[in-house]
Amino acid sequence: MSWPPAPALLAPLAPWFETSRRDLPWRAADLDAPHPDPYAVLVSELMLQQTQVATVVPYFKRWMDRFPTPQDLAEADEDTVHKAWEGLGYYRRARFLKAAAGSIAAEGWPRDLVGLTGLPGLGPYTAAAVGSIAFQWPAPALDGNAFRVLARLLLIEGDPKARAGDLRTWLAPALVAHGPSRLTQALMELGATVCAPVAGCGSCPLAEICGARLASRTAEIPPVAKRAVPKASALWLVAMEAEGHMLLHAPAASGLLAGLWRWPTLDAEAIPAGSVASEAPALVAWPGWTQVYTHRREAVSPLYLRLEARFEAAKSLRWVPVGDLTRLPFGKRDQRLRDLLATPGQAPLEAPDSALLIQNLSKA
Ligand code: SF4
């Protein structure tokens, strides 16, 4: 590692951050003291994993109104917590946050980085971010933005994450020199607002010393990771109503969709569009959409069926009073159908046979 010392190289970041930082609701005014509310830092860091700042801000404000302390969050029931997270995605974070709040409420905040890393949902990055921003511990926190800035500044070839250990060792003295909270946030802020994937070198405080800029290589450093081609599938998303109840999947206890209520789905290839069966008094449809996930794409065809009477549904399904729909937490795809139920649909030209749908959702 032959990089110039970090305290001198990163010195321009501190004054730049003083004048350029965004006013975000979780940010403390005083960057030299421990944060007055470490829980706010924890909430913001969990929300910011995989989610843009602009999306997080209103969620953060509502969350802090609803659960202002770790105790409040620890005591809330799971549906309420998932409901408050509804729309943010990656719901595992909400459960981790609740579990971490339970630990903090019962035992207080951990006293060191090892203790923070032991809280649910806090990997090395999040623990270091909370440690430096909330407690002023000189723990280097490298998120995607920080990796990009440092890769360009130091002209690192290949994936900078492969040099994470070296970068943390190199960065630590700069945190001590300029303040852990200030420098950690300044580095991430520069990556988020100036040294973005398309670099805005014209307004960068590091422009004079940046290796990638001086070598005219900002477009190729760091290299963009190739994404796997997402798997494609097609499904019917079915809102079935009978006797003032809707048929829903109860939340799973674990997995990506744990904690969320879901509409029944049926594989569109296994149940092709055919004639509309007569036993459904109402059958309406809306235009479909493609739901994009990290590793798959779903062609979603939303349907509504009203039946005369409930039937004995499969074990994982529940008949839920219609009035409960707005109270229960749904993922993004399923929210969309819930919202469509309030808008007029149309009698579908092509739909699956409703008798076949019922057969597939009935108790075996
Ligand atoms: S000069 Fe350009 S490439 Fe270098 S750190 Fe600044 S914005 Fe990024």
Q: What does this 3D model show about the protein?
A:
The protein is an alpha+beta fold and 364 residues long. The protein has 2 domains: 6-214, Hypothetical protein, domain 2 (Endonuclease III, domain 1), CATH 1.10.340.30; 231-361, Nucleoside Triphosphate Pyrophosphohydrolase, CATH 3.90.79. α3 runs antiparallel to α7 (92-107) and α9 crosses α12 (180-193). It starts with 5 loop residues before the first helix and ends with a helix. Strands 1, 2, 3, 4, 5, 6 and 7 form a 7-stranded mixed sheet that branches. It is built from 15 helices and 7 strands. The longest helix has 16 residues, at 92-107. Iron/sulfur cluster binds at residues 149, 152-153, 194-195, 199-201, 204, 206-207, 210, 212-213, 218.
Number of strands: 7
At the first level of CATH, the class of the largest domain is Mainly Alpha
- Tell me the strand percentage band: 5-15%
Can you tell me the overall shape?
elongated
Counting helices, strands and paired strands, the structural category is alpha+beta
What hetero molecules are in the model?
iron/sulfur cluster
Summed up, the helix count is 15
The CATH architecture term of the largest domain is Orthogonal Bundle
Mean pLDDT: 92
Radius of gyration: 25 Å
Name of the CATH superfamily of the largest domain: Hypothetical protein, domain 2
Report how far the terminal alpha carbons are from each other. Answer: 64 Å
Series of secondary-structure elements, N-terminal to C-terminal: HHHHHHHHHHHHHEEEEEEEHH
Domain module tally? 2
Q: CATH topology of the largest domain, what is it called?
A: Endonuclease III, domain 1
Largest sheet: 7 strands, mixed
Low-confidence stretches: none
- Helical content, roughly? 25-40%
